Amino acid sequence: MAIIKSGETPFQAYARLISVLGDQLISDKWVGVIELVKNSYDADAEKVIVRFLNFDNPSASAKPTIEIEDDGHGMNIDTILDVWMKPATPNKLNKKKAGDKRFTEKGRVMQGDKGVGRFAIYKLGDYVEVYSKTKSTGEVKLTLDFHDYADDEFKESEHQDKYLHEILNKWEVNDKPEKIINAKEQGTLIRISDIRSDWKFEDLIKLDKAFFRMKPPKLPGLSIPEDFQYEVIWDHRKPPKTYKRFDEISDLAPYYFEGMLDSHGNLDAIYTHNKSTVNIQFNLFEDELDIISSGIRSLKAYRDQFLKYDKKEIVEIRKPEIGGFMFFFYAYDLRDPALTKDEIEFLKETSVYLYRDNIRVYPYGEIGDDWLKLSKSRGELKAGDYFTYNDLLGFVFITQDENPKLRDAADREGLMNINGAKDDFIALVQTVLKVMKTKVDIDRKKEELKNQKAIKSLSKSYEESYNTLQKKLLEYDDAELIDRSKKFFNATNNLIQKVREDLKITQELAGTGMAVEKATHDTMSLLKRLKVNTEDFVNRFDKGKIQSKELRDFLVELQENLEFLYQELQVLQPLFRVARKVTKDVSVRNVTERVIKYFRKELEGKIKVNLDSNKDIVVKTNTGLILQVILNLMDNSIYWLEQLSDKDKQISIVFNEDDNTVIFADTGPGIPEDIEDLIFTEFYTKKSEGRGLGLYIVKELLDRIDAEISLITNPNLRILKGANFIIKFKKEEK
């Protein structure tokens, strides 16, 4: 095939490209105004005034107009023609590349770098007048009539489409300023008319709030220059400042977390609950015990973004593609009666805000913007692992210097995802929040435990008063009163006994459910494998390709698999309620051996189990109760041992016949000191898919037979380095 014609040609852009850029790059009218105000910030303005004129009583001679005026360094005619009038100019980007030139004269880091932010004016209106003046040059006036550029109405008109270079925009330089009249003798005024969007006075409240939040609030240890003021005016009226300041609400937070995460994953933070402060320092990728204790491996974003698994084993840890950041997080309980209605409403309107070089990245922090994917994760995963935006207020700070890949998206809707840097960043912020959430959950559970103790104390007080009243009534010589009282007492006792019996059944069912869940999973996996192997065997048999040795091997495998299924069901049988009614002498050792066999798939070749030889403890109860206790302890140990990369994984079970005790210990990460009081409470768990019932049910079951379980906290009494539990059974009288 021969080339019959060739050449070179440039793009020829139609003028309507400006309208396309304005509509596509600027998401809404709010962002349009904010972008122009950010340009004023880059121009070192100390004050910006945004005026909405003639909106209440518009007329042909007084059209609704938006004015944005600043006292920045302004532009001369060369800047207007060579920079401002050249879309996508690399002017700011080149300054950023040149090191210190990315800073303005006031030391501000320039926000824009794409050269398209000026098209925000098209989002606001079709007729634009730009007045600008530097301190040493005359005032420049530039007029833009976007009616000439495009007609995007879906109806016929006399508009003729032109190429961009065919439309000439008028400019002039005045020797005396017409509009830029201020003490600094410099600045820019943009007048926009033929307004494209509806504006109401109430809109200014939202706009005023957006400007207020454009700069970060006063935060502990953070110095922010107060050199940028703004003012919003509606026909000589100003919107009421009804909103609260951040510092008014931050002091009310019972939970506070501030710190830094560097580019290597080193977390250096302080967690405060009321007046109690804890320093937290560890590497999010290297310090395994802290990683497990903080629960961050249960976080899907952390696992998906940074970990590579082979089955359940971590085979690779990837470091993030971003630099460090600073954070301040405040967590609340909206049920707290101390919070007023206005304070609760304020919290519902706020969120987690992102600031780059002390200027906010929009729309992060706006109501409904789930930039951290907390709402999505709560809906799709385990809600309890994540804060809601309603009870969380936060500020995250990044810099262009440390995070050059975290740049504004072209449409001004958050960050670009350059080489996955945004995904890494969001995953790391979620991870930091998970560290905080783990601490908050512990403190909330401790407060709940205090309330439960108060309720138990109240229950005991009720029983004592109940018994006293019953005795007192018997002293009265009133047969009818005594008879009615007895009926009342009997009804009350029956109700209490029913509640206790219902609770007992629920606890038994919960334990049975855990065992059934595991057995079902293992059985289905085995049956699926058997089905595939059997189908393959039948096909080969039909084709006459089966040798006698293969037939024997298949039958042996089938026998082993059936034995496995039998053992699974053997473990389940004593857990059912009908079996629990049989009380007999139960060998704790025999039950333990049965549980070890039950978990053989998880244990063999992975975890060594040390079982005391020739020792045993016999307890008068039902087999299901002891089985449920050992099942829960074994399941816990296996779960936490699987979280460790350490190859030397052990479980030891020691029987002491003299003291009638059993020690159940492992080489896992152990129980952190701050949750030792919580591990036997219901619904508290640090497992990613846990329900928080295992150890609680173990304790309740043992209470029924006057046995007790506790955590060994004395290092001298532990037999392994991880979690060590001791069960003390009541000695039977001979």
Helix content percent band = 25-40%
Give the oligomeric state.
single chain
The Rg value, from CA coordinates, equals: 36 Å
Structural class: alpha+beta
Please give a structural write-up.
It is a single chain. The strands form five sheets. The protein has a seven-stranded mixed beta sheet. By secondary structure, it is of the alpha+beta class. Helix content is about 40%, strand content about 20%. It contains 19 helices and 23 strands. Helix 13 runs antiparallel to helix 14 and helix 16 crosses helix 18. The radius of gyration is 36 Å and the shape is elongated.
Summarize this structure as a short list of keywords or feature phrases.
734 residues, alpha+beta, Heat Shock Protein 90, seven-stranded mixed sheet, 23 strands, elongated, EC 2.7.13.3, HATPase_C_sf, protein histidine kinase activity, Sig_transdc_His_kin-like_C
Topology:
Blueprint: H1 17-25, H2 29-42, E1 47-53, E2 65-70, H3 77-84, H4 91-97, H5 120-124, E3 125-133, E4 139-145, E5 171-174, E6 187-195, H6 203-212, E7 229-234, H7 246-250, E8 255-261, E9 266-273, E10 276-283, H8 288-294, H9 300-306, E11 307-310, E12 313-317, E13 325-331, H10 341-349, E14 352-356, E15 359-360, H11 374-380, E16 392-398, H12 421-473, H13 479-542, H14 548-572, H15 577-580, E17 584-587, H16 588-598, H17 600-603, E18 608-611, E19 618-621, H18 623-642, E20 650-656, E21 661-666, H19 694-704, E22 708-711, E23 724-728
Parallel strand pairs: 1-7, 14-16, 18-20
Antiparallel strand pairs: 1-2, 2-6, 3-4, 3-6, 4-5, 8-9, 8-13, 9-10, 11-12, 13-16, 14-15, 17-19, 20-21, 21-23, 22-23
